[in-house]
């Protein structure tokens, strides 16, 4: 091996181009010839045991010098014409190790099932990781528990008598709660929705007909309308004169839409939770 | 050294049945992977929550809230 290394090093230093047969055994033969030329040793496997000469050359090969720094070495024809062996007659050069020690004894189907099990498990765990990452980022964006707790308002409806308005604050905005009388409910239902600017049935705007709950923000420019006022017995916005009826629907004035209905739910013991 | 093959063993036929049931069709394989990912996540969360609650028994708000709130 040392001789081979020195040879390669000196060859690259002198810019020597060597035309060699491309087979491994051919190369081995050439280097053996050159390294042990004096002894005439033809042993293919004796590389490591022999001390190689300090400056080995290729004396067996005919060297043609074309110019000072380029040397072409022509390998004799005998080395190029390799005899091709088949496997049975060349056991010495094709020593295939015994792999039986490493062979699996557990059967083909078990090995295949195990491989796919590992593939599937890897995929599943990666999916869990990716899903958790995405979920964490999304949870980071949503409101935290204390904000959500502040975002809900609970109102006791039993303290509101019939025919009265109550205004409460919810998320910085006023919310109107009206305990409507039976007459007002009938009045709200008697309106034909074809004549409305923002056509909506009264049933679409209330969960229980006697409780009208809506956002107290005029849909025109955001003023707070006044209750029990206006031409339609509902709300009146003093800013630009929008009239809302007893269902909070726009009837007259510049506002384009009915008063907005927030999300709310009735509790069992006469309470409403807005938000 | 002769290799003892287990191609005909019970484990091997079980593995073949599992392969045919789960892996053979890619749609089934992928569905199994995603479903088992959800199942594994839920199982992991449940088990780890239970371990945490066991280690911190009596120290969490849900354990002591009865002492400080009425209702």
TrEMBL record, chain A:
The keyword rRNA-binding does not apply. Residues 34-61 are annotated as: Disordered. SUPFAM superfamilies: ISP domain, ISP transmembrane anchor. One of its GO terms (molecular function) is quinol-cytochrome-c reductase activity. The keyword Electron transport applies. It comes from the Eukaryota. Residues 38-52 have a biased composition (Basic and acidic residues). It is found in: Membrane; Mitochondrion inner membrane. Its EC number is 7.1.1.8. One of its GO terms (cellular component) is mitochondrial inner membrane. Residues 205-273 form the Rieske domain. It is a single-pass membrane protein. Binds 1 [2Fe-2S] cluster per subunit. Keywords: 2Fe-2S, Disulfide bond, Electron transport, Iron, Iron-sulfur, Membrane, Metal-binding, Mitochondrion, Respiratory chain, Transmembrane, Transmembrane helix, Transport. Its main location: membrane. It catalyses: a quinol + 2 Fe(III)-[cytochrome c](out) = a quinone + 2 Fe(II)-[cytochrome c](out) + 2 H(+)(out). PROSITE patterns: RIESKE. Its cofactor is [2Fe-2S] cluster. Pfam families: Rieske, UCR_TM. The Rieske protein is a high potential 2Fe-2S protein. Belongs to the Rieske iron-sulfur protein family. This is Cytochrome b-c1 complex subunit Rieske, mitochondrial.
From TrEMBL, chain B:
Its main location: mitochondrion. Keywords: Electron transport, Membrane, Mitochondrion, Mitochondrion inner membrane, Respiratory chain, Transmembrane, Transmembrane helix, Transport. It comes from the Eukaryota. SUPFAM superfamilies: Subunit X (non-heme 7 kDa protein) of cytochrome bc1 complex (Ubiquinol-cytochrome c reductase). One of its GO terms (biological process) is mitochondrial electron transport, ubiquinol to cytochrome c. It is found in: Mitochondrion inner membrane. The keyword Plastid does not apply. Pfam families: UCR_UQCRX_QCR9. GO terms for cellular component: mitochondrial inner membrane; respiratory chain complex III. InterPro entries: QCR9 (IPR008027), QCR9_sf (IPR036656). It is a single-pass membrane protein. Belongs to the UQCR10/QCR9 family. Component of the ubiquinol-cytochrome c oxidoreductase, a multisubunit transmembrane complex that is part of the mitochondrial electron transport chain which drives oxidative phosphorylation. The complex plays an important role in the uptake of multiple carbon sources present in different host niches. Component of the ubiquinol-cytochrome c oxidoreductase (cytochrome b-c1 complex, complex III, CIII), a multisubunit enzyme composed of 3 respiratory subunits cytochrome b, cytochrome c1 and Rieske protein, 2 core protein subunits, and additional low-molecular weight protein subunits. This is Complex III subunit 9. It comes from Dissophora globulifera.
